[in-house]
Write a structure and sequence with these properties.
- Chain B: Keywords: Exonuclease, Hydrolase, Nuclease.
- Chain B: This is Putative exonuclease, RdgC.
- Chain B: GO terms for molecular function: exonuclease activity.
- The complex is a heterodimer of chains A (177) and B (204).
- Chain A has 177 residues and is of the alpha+beta class.
- Chain A has one domain.
- Chain A has six helices and five strands; from the N terminus they run αααββαβββαα.
- Chain A has a five-stranded antiparallel β-sheet.
- In chain A, strand 4 and strand 5 form a beta hairpin.
- Chain B has two domains: 121 residues, no CATH class; 43 residues.
- Chain B is 37% helix and 22% strand.
- Classes of the chains: A alpha+beta (177), B alpha+beta (204).
- Chains A and B meet through helix 1, helix 2, strand 5, helix 5 and helix 6 of A and strand 1, helix 5 and helix 6 of B.
């Protein structure tokens, strides 16, 4: 068993590669429903208002590119990918039927920040608290489980020959467009 | 940011181990024995403890619940004292002037200045009230997972330490490596392959 700090640093590249792949999936409008196997009519993942890329320049320095704004052009991002960058953080909009979640996710830690769930009922008395807590927990669980499932799907693909033979060529073609 | 806020940050954990005796009583004991202290310790720079979700400043788990459906939900409170560096600088300067006058000297040695700074810092720390910060915790005992509603490094470290002390169960932070290790879907063979992966170069 690896030391926790060592394993964090050694495998953080997998989190960044996961987000890079997620961006590829989102941009190419690849259907995520079969990957998630959720019981719903529609499910989608879209890029939100921020994406952060990092390009390691060796000698412990790195180049960081942050693209912000609802209608920001993403050309600089794909250019960065062409230069060897990976996505280190991104804001996502996750939709299941009529419900929408927005959140940012960091590749190295998988930490979630700024998570906004679909609207919930107001708490008007002390008696409403338990119901509100349980409703919120359920609403947090849905996107977290989706991330876990997508990550496992990515890892299964990542360790297979399919990654080298199909996914990498397809991602290269996407960033070269 | 708390569990009921409109926007939250989440760090995730897996809980290693199970209780040998009653779950509810074990959690209750762990929480009540480690509640945040009501009395401010003038010498302590930091004070850490549990408090109910519904009651940040009345840490009474008899009065307020920690069991919500099949989950345990409570809060970690960290009370921390800190003196702004500019206040320390001002008081040190005043003390130096006073000492120079008293001793009819033109300057103080580096060591004398350091001693003054240490004394002033200690005195101000004692006078300074601590600032409370509360972070919610959601523990799904059945699935051995914890959601901690903060991604701040220091708050996460305090959670890991107090959780172990309170419940004698270890929290394993979930990040790419531990997510793979703890996955119930990935096969052992896939986990082994993942452990030996090198980064992909999209650059041709």
């Amino acid at each position: 068993m690896l030391d926790i700090a060592v394993s964090y640093n050694k495998y953080k590249f997998l989190g960044d590669e996961f987000l890079t792949w997620v961006w590829y999936v989102v941009e190419n409008e690849i259907n995520i429903k079969p990957m998630l196997a959720m019981e719903c009519n529609t499910v989608s993942l879209k890029l939100g208002n921020t994406i952060v890329l990092e390009n390691s320049l060796g000698d412990e320095s790195s180049e960081k590119i942050t693209i912000k704004g609802d209608d920001a052009g993403l050309e600089e991002g794909t250019t960065a990918l062409r230069k060897g960058a990976v996505v280190t953080e991104m804001n996502l909009i996750f939709t299941v039927d009529e419900n929408e979640w927005r959140f940012s996710i960091k590749g190295e830690s998988m930490n979630i920040t700024g998570l906004k769930t679909p609207a919930t009922g107001n708490i008007e008395s002390q008696d409403d608290i338990e119901g509100a807590v349980l409703e919120k927990i359920e609403l947090y669980t849905i996107p977290l489980q989706a991330i876990d499932t997508l990550f496992e799907y990515f890892i299964k693909k990542r360790v297979s020959d399919r990654w080298r033979d199909i996914e990498i060529p397809a991602m290269r073609e996407w960033i070269s467009l | 940011m708390g569990l009921l806020s409109s926007s939250v940050s989440i760090a995730r954990y897996r809980v290693e181990g199970k209780f040998e005796s009653s779950i509810l009583e074990s959690v209750r004991n762990g929480l009540t024995k480690n509640i945040i202290s009501q009395i401010e310790d003038e010498y302590a720079e930091i004070s850490v403890g549990w408090t109910p979700l519904e009651s940040e400043f009345d840490p009474d788990f008899e009065k307020f619940s920690f069991s919500f459906g099949t989950y345990f939900v409570f809060s970690l409170r960290i009370d921390k004292k800190s003196v702004p560096s500019k206040i320390i600088k001002k008081h040190v300067a005043l003390e130096v002037i006073k000492k120079l006058k008293e001793t009819h000297r033109d300057f103080l040695s580096k060591n004398e200045k350091k001693d003054i700074k240490d004394l002033i810092t200690e005195k101000l720390m004692r006078q300074m009230p601590s600032t409370p910060n509360t972070y919610d915790v959601m523990w799904d005992y059945e699935n051995a997972t914890v959601l901690f509603f903060s991604t701040q490094k220091a708050a996460n470290e305090e959670l890991e330490t107090l959780f172990k002390k309170s419940f004698q169960l270890k929290l394993i932070r979930l990040f790419p490596f531990t997510m793979i290790e703890n996955s119930l879907t990935l096969k052992d063979e896939e986990k082994d392959l993942a452990a030996n992966l090198a980064s992909t170069k999209l650059l041709r």
